Amino acid sequence: MSExxxxxxxxxxxxxxxxxxxxxxxxxxxxxxxxxxxARWVPxxxxxxxxxxxxxxxxxxxxxxxxxxxxxxxxxxPLGLSLAVIAAxxxxxxxxxxGTAFLVSLAAFTTLASALPGxxxxxxxxxxxxxxxxxxxxx
Amino acid sequence: xxxxxxxPVEGAASGSAGxxxxxxxxxxxxxxxxxxxxxxxxxxxxWLPLLLAAALWISxxxxxxxxxxxxxxxxxxxxxxxxxxxxxxxxGFLAGLRRADTAPWWPALYCAGLLTALKGLPAVLxxxxxxxxxxxxxAVINHLLADGELRPYEGLSGNMSAYDQWPGFFTxxxxxxxxxxxxxxxxxxxxxxxxxxxLTMPVLVLxxxxxxxxxxxxxxxxxxxxxxxxxxxxxxxxxxxxxxxxLAVLAVVVRHFVRPGSAGRLRSRSCxxxxxxxxxxxxxxxxxxxxxxxxxxxxxxxNAVHQLTPVMLCATLLALNLTRRYRNPGLxxxxxLIMLAWDxxxxxxxxxxxxxxxxxxxxxxxxxxxxxxAGQLTGAGPELAGxxxxxxxxxxxxxxxxxxxxxxxxxHSALPLLLASVAPVPLFAVNxxxxxxxxxxxxxxxxxxxxxxxxxxxxxxxxxxxxxxGPAVRRLRAAALPVTLTALLAGFLPAYYGKERMYYTPxxxxxxxxxxxxxxxxxxxxxxxxxxxPKALHRYDxxxxxxxxxxxxxxxxxxxxxxxxxxxxxxPPGTTAYVVLTRTQEIHTAGEGLLPPGGFAALTRDLAASPxxxxxxxxxxxxxxxxxxx
Lengths: 139, 630
Fold this sequence. Notes:
The complex is a heterodimer of chains A (139) and B (630).
Chain A: H1 10-30, H2 38-57, H3 68-93, H4 99-115, H5 132-136
Chain B: H1 40-60, H2 80-97, H3 105-125, H4 132-147, H5 162-165, H6 168-180, H7 192-211, H8 215-228, H9 238-256, H10 264-267, H11 285-305, H12 309-320, H13 329-344, H14 348-361, H15 365-369, H16 380-406, H17 408-413, H18 415-422, H19 437-457, H20 471-497, H21 500-503, H22 507-519, E1 525-528, E2 544-547, H23 553-561, H24 563-570, E3 576-582, H25 583-591, H26 599-609, E4 614-619, E5 622-628
Parallel strand pairs in B: 1-2, 1-3
Antiparallel strand pairs in B: 3-5, 4-5
Helix pairs in contact in B: 1-2, 1-3, 2-3, 2-20, 3-7, 3-8, 4-6, 7-8, 7-9, 8-19, 8-20, 9-11, 9-12, 11-13, 12-13, 12-18, 16-19, 16-20, 18-19
């Protein structure tokens, strides 16, 4: 049953989620550094690419299907970049765009998303719970 | 955490930087032979080629003569160590493939290494923006940041308002520019192919692993994809990002939108090809609805970023609806509605305009398949690039076709991937998209084509044994993959770097252009032979521009007879025009066959000599002339 296959130690999971929740604000803080230094652009790039996406996708609910981690890793960036595109475009449409507003909106979203359970995107489908065995048993 | 892999016998003494195969990849799909045998010398083959290739590549950098490129672009300016590093990388990848099942990080690292080695060169070396169109996009970002708002209905010159109508990529990069604290995107845009490639790689692996459980096939397909991705659609442009998002949607669809009860025969063990993966578990209607909702932001982003990709996405979803497995009319409807909504609101001006011209281009297959503008590629480098490109397309197509014939069962189980690849082809019948449709269709077909090409090359493991091939055939089969990968590598380099002289402009030349355009008063007109040089569209929201040689050859021949009169009679009265003629334009017009040989030099000479045009500045890189119409 699924209880025997809890995905992660609760402490580690909480740590990951806490780290994600803070990542946006840490990035915002990093923008106080002088422009174009690695200490500034590396966190920004990593956060914008992966922060919101990972916050949405982990932790994964239920038993993990095959390739679940790959799926989370692969889809984090497209999902996150989609949200970043929407955030930036909305700010421009509202004529209230600025670098800070952009990062704040993404950071707030990431903090909120990391508090909620992950999207049912990776992992096995609940409806096929009985089939999880066959889908993995290619032999 | 899923069960931990028992400590691998990789020998800490080897000092290997190699990571332990992460626990998550111990496949849950059945028992595998444990890493029982000691891998001592074998482990060397994992990281040594990578290290060696990196060393060779880095050592080659100071000797890359990108500032003195001749007819062959970068090809004859690359030192032997560069080519050697690529070969070592290929060899290391092939060696690592043999253990791809148990050590998947190595093929991944090698693929990332290939990407960096091939496309990271300009990013590391160039002191200016590669590709004039990347510079154009930089200008759009600067315009948006300066204005702080979007004006999709403004109607800027040269259809530049399209970028206000589908602004997603530019707004995102506006945010990045501000967050990075950079002056403009020019500081980092050369890295776009590497970054996009690295982000695309896991999505590709995800798609491939849905259809094949043979890791060698999967990684070979990724490698082939990278080598075949020479079309230059992954530079700093909306289409690169849109393509990544499109692939992500495709990955989610093939993994999570399997209809219940649709893949019965495929789940039986006797039927499929040994390399085929099991069909993902089916999902009920409610689950698919939830996942569709999750996909909505991604689809909205695709629409916000690019105008053509949503069409490709809908075509792909439509094609998938032809299979029983992936019949999801609801998702197709959602995607179609979002596209329509964007086209009728933000994108209305260009959308209505395209609908109007559609009647002319509909059915014009020959015209729509022609790449680029008017002329024939001229010059050793461009011609070589063109021919290499054609050969690469043929090679990949032939291989993919061979796989469809030789591995029919795999083709049957991977039918959705095949359909997704050919789905955009009918768009040829609709529009030529400014000569670009050929490259776009190729790009969207490439993931599937690379998969099947790899399927043709990677021998199926665990055959039935009923037809045991003779030793000669087996040797041939074993040699197919290394030979093909090397051949594709040999084709990639000319296709990607053969025309490099057109794509690199020295900073001094760009400074000349920037000075000229900055000096132009508001309402002035900027003239140039073509728009394919950096900063051509600097301040495009304040100045009109006219790239007068971007037309069919007969028009240019006529222009060359008396350029001064040709231009002055076509300029409206009371305008101030700045004619900017630079070395990069000369290379471009000659290479693309827009002007006959010597035509650009004659043009420059005649205009400078004309009393109507006053020389404002002349340097080794070009000349700037001013014309005030009476």
